[in-house]
Design brief:
Helices cover 16% and strands 50% of the residues. By secondary structure, it is α+β, with helices and mostly antiparallel strands.
Amino acid sequence: MKKIWLIIAILLVLIVIARYRDNNDPALIISGLLCNGEIRGNAALDYRINLFSVFPAGEAEFRDKKEEIFENKKVYHLSADAGTGKFVSRFFKARVVLDSYVDPQSNNPLFFSQKVFVPGKPDINKEIRYDQKQKIMLISGSSREILADTQDPLSAMFNIRTMDFSKIKEFEMNINTNQKNYLLSARVCPKEITVAGKKYQLFIIDGEIKRRNKNPYHKTKLKITLLKQKENIPLSVKVFSSGMLINAKLVEVR
């Protein structure tokens, strides 16, 4: 009887592994998106978030950029909304709303806000103002030094989506939203696949994020699979940090 249960357990593990591989195959992601018509840029992107690429944890929406006026300046308004999924919400609920206002000339952020909502607890609202010329940021009433062209998470992804990776093999980016300067360094690997008789150009971004002036072994690994369109579309984003793997897979383009 124990052997039977062991065999069943092994089969379940193999099924989960197969599901994980299939769900993160760029060709299958593209096939799923094509069911709703042609894939286009300049659109809202919906993602399903999994822990260890298997366990459903949440959902996220990255909205298309909007041209707005912010504090008498023309800007790109970037926004995203993420929350726990239906299964996790049975035990714990949370929602995060991100907003970034970006200078269209430099693609650098001017203002970034992060709001966290957890039922039964006080809302958390973090706001950051960037003075890119003076190389400082204002957060919680304090001024902090930043490096040239410092980004927040939304503006960093926006910049990655607008890069021409047919001409770029490696890149670096400065990031700061918590008073510490971080460096994103990445390599770019082009790849071509065929789906439903049509060729698609992909770019695989293999990167790591580490805090400057800190132990080099404290790193966050990052892998982004981009589909080349008018602007690059992230098909999947994998983040590995502190022994935890988080995977976001694109499920709908609207």
